[in-house]
């Protein structure tokens, strides 16, 4: 298992409507940005760390987050 150290920062909120999402592996597929959108809101810190340990570093992702999950180090 690779070590992970990161901080989640969202400089600009996405304004794409969820009606542009289609079911996809690990979440939804955004027809607008052509990326997988993962719902992190129900995940614990440990779940988020595990998620990022298990995906390729170059994965093209977007996500939905709770405010308390942002701007802190994992």
Structure in words:
The chain is built from one helix and four strands. It has one helix spanning 45-54, and strands at residues 21-24, 27-30, 36-39, 61-64. The longest helix has 10 residues, at 45-54. The radius of gyration is 12 Å and the shape is globular. The chain starts with 20 loop residues before the first strand and ends in a 10-residue tail after the last strand.
Poorly predicted tracts of residues: none
From the N-terminal CA to the C-terminal CA, the straight-line distance is 16 Å
Task: Figure out the total of helices.
Answer: 1
Largest sheet: 4 strands, mixed
Summarize the structure.
By secondary structure, the protein is of the alpha+beta class. 14% of the residues lie in helices and 22% in strands. The longest helix is centred in the C-terminal third of the chain and has 10 residues.
Q: Layout of helices and strands, plus pairs?
A:
Layout: E1 21-24, E2 27-30, E3 36-39, H1 45-54, E4 61-64
Q: Which labels suit this protein?
A:
4-stranded mixed β-sheet, alpha+beta, 74 residues, single chain, 1 helix
